[in-house]
Amino acid sequence: MIAPWQLALVRQATIARVPFADALRRLKRRVSGYRPNASNIGSTLYDLRQLHNLMRANELRFRGAVLEIGSGWFPIAGIVARLAGADRVILTDIIPHMDQQTFLTSRQIVLEQLDEIAKAFDFDPQTARGTLIGAATPKELKLTYMAPFDITAVPDASLDLVMSRACLEHIPAPDLEALAARLRTKLKRGGFMAHAIDNSDHFSHVDPKLSRVNFLTWSDAKHHLMWSLARGGENRLRHHEYADLFRRNGYEVIASDAFIDAKVLQGLSRLKLVAPYNRMTAEQIAAVTSWYVLRTSTSQL
Q: 215-245: b or e for each residue (b if 16 or more CB lie within 10 Å)?
């Protein structure tokens, strides 16, 4: 019997090869509307709160010019950053996802939870409500959308913050190395980064019977095949490997945290991990979510 994660792979592989798939999705949204899954909204806001808490503990905040890597269909993170203190937010994607409808849906979601969000992110809900209601378009909320993302169009030393949520894991490790190095030059002196990274096997999101680190049992060849089939995947970097990558590319880790999944720990003995994961500690394997706050290393200034 085919497992739910295998069905999801077939679906992703099929959609990836259907001509005009993105245009068809946009047409469907215009006809029937589209609201993100409630759990996705909750996890987005949770990750943002975790980053905000790490930032606040280091006397940092959403401010100035913010660039979000991989904004996706619903710019909830960008809207929250704007309300929490950013003067403007640049939303980015490889290909266009967000449109006017998904912006309005995101605005409504934030309005529905505004009191709670304002308390968590330390801003005045009444002022924010007026700002949101008065912004009928992304431009009116001082959000700009760059899709496809062209890093050369971003001036050097122009950004106060680069942020992402559940995005970096989808970038192949060599490309992520290059992106981190290039983004460093885009930050102002005193600028910083804040990233929430989902280190879990994303097929486990649709198949509760699958270990959240099942993909660490795949050979490199199988991993490459899965990535190619779905035209997107995960780089499989673990929490500690991201720290090493950031440091190699000129950043200092000023705050970090990770969620170590107890259920993953309990089930590791039943998994046949491949190298190099079979040489890592259980905690390194079971760290399925990472939160990082970074700044440019003083040696790079």
A: bbbbeeeebeebbebbeebbbbbbbbbbbeb
